[in-house]
Specification:
Layout (H helix, E strand, L loop, with lengths): L1 H26 L13 E7 L1 E23 L5 E6 L6 E2 L4 E5 L2 H36 L5 H33 L2 E3 L4 E3 L9 E2 L8 E16 L3 H8 L5 E5 L6 E14 L5 E8 L11 E18 L4 E3 L2 E7 L5 E5 L1 E6 L2 E6 L6 E5 L10 E3 L20
Length: 390
């Protein structure tokens, strides 16, 4: 009995000890689990660029030939010869077409014959007058005879003058049978073939010649740009640069000629005209182009890629990377955008580093790591948040 009692007491003691140990374990305070580290967000960034940057106004325009001549006949005639090849460059005096000159040569010969006849009559009338004057003094000729002969001389003199005018007219008409180019330019498509009769009343030109060196571009700007353009013109000539219609390729450089003297009341725009030497013939009449008018060049200007700009509730802003690799939002004032870059008036300094890709995951104070633009961990857009920040 005594041993059995001892066993029971031992079991109770073990159970009690286990309970006390369990209570002690449960009574110990639990340590909070450490928060997982937030990984840095991969972004692409670049330094603010300091360079000379032009201030420009951009408008759409049309190339206009400096001079255009629609060649018509000034006399009626049959085309005997064409002196050019379609699309050929011609110069003042270059033969365009030759009309049959024979009818006008005959008119000239007739006028010359009339002149010779009337000059002979004039010579005879003058000789008779020279005989009548001394005869009148000696009483052998009457005053009436002298007066009549004097009138005959005057009549023949007038006839000679008329004949000379007729010759001049016939020579002019004959010269019209040889049609030449009045300007430097390029010929278009021939409108009338050899053998056809042309006349001054024809509405269709024989050919159209357009001058392309130099050449002009007429383009438009909003009326709000007029004061700035006029102020810049007062300081000197303004450079105009013509680009392809999509502004992807530079075509030619010229000079602003004028600002039109009236703003369109319907569109609120004004026409401007610029001239271009067009030495490379990159501009062609009727072509649509984009024109950038350079008002000034701003030296040591600050600019960033357009991809750095984000739109907030109060305007444009950028993410600036600090020395501790965290980002802060910075409101900026954009003067203009050109060639994929934005000219910054206020908000940035030289040496600042701005994020150009990966902004959608950023907030004030976010830790970032700079990566290359082609890094596979870089995510640059999300439909819900790209470009708009609260």
């Amino acid at each position: 009995m005594a041993c059995r009692t001892c066993i029971i007491i031992g079991v109770v003691a073990v159970v009690a000890g286990a309970g006390i140990a369990g209570w002690q374990i449960n009574a110990q305070p639990t340590q909070p689990a450490a928060a997982p580290a937030v990984p840095a967000v991969p972004v692409v960034a670049t330094k603010v660029q300091v360079s000379d940057m032009p201030i420009v106004k951009t408008g759409l325009g049309t190339v206009v030939a400096y001079n255009t001549v629609a060649v018509h006949a000034q006399v009626t005639g049959t085309i005997e010869k064409v002196g050019f090849i379609e699309g050929q460059e011609v110069h003042p005096g270059s033969l365009i077409v030759q009309l049959d000159p024979r009818p006008y040569q005959a008119m000239l010969q007739q006028a010359e014959a009339n002149l010779a006849r009337d000059q002979a009559h004039l010579t005879n009338a003058q000789a008779n007058l020279a005989r009548y004057v001394p005869l009148q003094k000696n009483g052998f000729a009457t005053e009436q005879q002298v007066s009549d002969q004097t009138a005959s001389v005057a009549e023949q003199q007038a006839a000679v003058v008329a004949d000379k005018a007729a010759i001049d007219n016939a020579q002019t008409q004959l010269s019209y049978t040889t049609i030449t180019s009045p300007i430097d330019g390029v010929t278009g498509i021939l409108g009338v073939d050899i053998g056809n009769i042309v006349q001054p009343t024809d509405t269709k030109p024989i050919v159209t010649i357009t001058q392309i060196q130099p050449i002009s571009v007429v383009f438009t700007l909003p009326q709000n740009d007029v004061p700035a353009v006029l102020a810049a013109m007062a300081k000197g000539p303004l450079q105009a640069i013509a680009y392809s219609q999509d502004a992807s390729k530079e075509l030619a450089t010229g000079t602003l000629l004028l600002v039109n003297n009236m703003i369109s009341p319907t569109s609120g725009t004004v026409d401007l005209k610029a001239t271009f030497p067009n030495q490379g013939r990159m501009l062609w009449p009727g072509e649509y182009v984009t024109v950038r008018l350079v008002l000034e060049v701003r030296h040591n200007a600050l600019s960033v890629p357009l991809t750095a700009l984000q739109q907030g509730q109060n305007g444009s802003l950028v993410f600036v990377v600090g020395p501790d690799d965290t980002v802060q939002t910075r409101a900026v004032s954009v003067a203009e955008t050109l060639n994929g870059r934005a000219l910054i008036d206020q908000g940035l300094q030289a040496g600042d580093t701005v994020v150009t890709a990966g902004q959608y995951r950023l907030n004030e104070g976010t830790k970032v790591v700079l990566v290359a633009p082609n890094d596979p961990h870089l995510q640059t857009s999300t439909p819900a948040t790209q470009g708009m920040l609260q």
